[in-house]
Every structure is written in C-alpha cells, then in structure tokens.
C-alpha cells in the first residue's frame, strides 16, 4: 500500500519531461562516487614515493580495479554534467521561485 501510494498514485504534472530526472541522477552519481571512492581508498597510498605505484597496483592487481578507477573518474564528470543540467533546468523553468521545494531539491 505504501509503494502504491508513493509511486503509482503519486500526482505528477502532465507537462513533466526527461529534464526533471537530473536530480535523481545527481543522487545516483553521488552514491557511485562514494562507493568507488571507498574501494579505491582501500588500496591507495598518498605518499609521494608510492602514489603512482599504488595506482598501477589498483589497475593491474586488484580485481576490476581498472573498472572502479574509471567509474570514479568518469563519475565525477557525469556528476558535474548532471549538476549543470539540473541547475540550468531550474533556472529555465523558474523553479527557484518555489521556495517550498528548496529543501528537497
């Protein structure tokens, strides 16, 4: 009943488009950044003498370390793309005038 009330019977405006998805994508990108960052931090050393070798260790020796590293690097770019599109959509549609929605995004 809670799922039905929250997702299926949720009143949404008829003019909603794909431009309204970027807030959710921002949250998803942030979760990906946190998770991949934690996995990378388990194997990274920040000493100036061993930093490069720890990155090569992550890419070569850690299972799917290359994938986690590239997801983290590209996830940062995707986060800022979604952020700029989210803010741009808000400015274009004048969403900044609805002060009640500022707490939820």
TrEMBL record:
It is a multi-pass membrane protein. GO terms for cellular component: mitochondrial inner membrane. GO terms for biological process: mitochondrial electron transport, ubiquinol to cytochrome c. Residues 1-105 form the Cytochrome b/b6 N-terminal region profile domain. Coiled coil: none annotated. It is found in: Mitochondrion inner membrane. InterPro entries: Cyt_b/b6_N, Cytb/b6-like_sf, Di-haem_cyt_TM. Its main location: mitochondrion. Keywords: Electron transport, Heme, Iron, Membrane, Metal-binding, Mitochondrion, Mitochondrion inner membrane, Respiratory chain, Transmembrane, Transmembrane helix, Transport, Ubiquinone. One of its GO terms (molecular function) is metal ion binding. The chain crosses the membrane at residues 19-41, 78-99. Component of the ubiquinol-cytochrome c reductase complex (complex III or cytochrome b-c1 complex) that is part of the mitochondrial respiratory chain. The b-c1 complex mediates electron transfer from ubiquinol to cytochrome c. Contributes to the generation of a proton gradient across the mitochondrial membrane that is then used for ATP synthesis. The cytochrome bc1 complex contains 11 subunits: 3 respiratory subunits (MT-CYB, CYC1 and UQCRFS1), 2 core proteins (UQCRC1 and UQCRC2) and 6 low-molecular weight proteins (UQCRH/QCR6, UQCRB/QCR7, UQCRQ/QCR8, UQCR10/QCR9, UQCR11/QCR10 and a cleavage product of UQCRFS1). This cytochrome bc1 complex then forms a dimer. This is Cytochrome b.
């Amino acid at each position: 009943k809670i799922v039905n009330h929250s997702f299926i019977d949720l009143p949404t405006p008829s003019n909603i488009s794909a431009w309204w998805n970027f807030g959710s994508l921002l949250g998803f990108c942030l979760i990906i950044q946190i998770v991949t960052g934690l996995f990378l931090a388990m194997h990274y050393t920040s000493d100036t003498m061993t930093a490069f070798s720890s990155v090569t260790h992550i890419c070569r020796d850690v299972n799917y370390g290359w994938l986690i590293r590239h997801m983290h690097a590209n996830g940062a770019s995707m986060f800022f793309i979604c952020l700029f599109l989210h803010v741009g959509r808000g400015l274009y549609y004048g969403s900044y005038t609805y002060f009640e929605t500022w707490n939820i995004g």
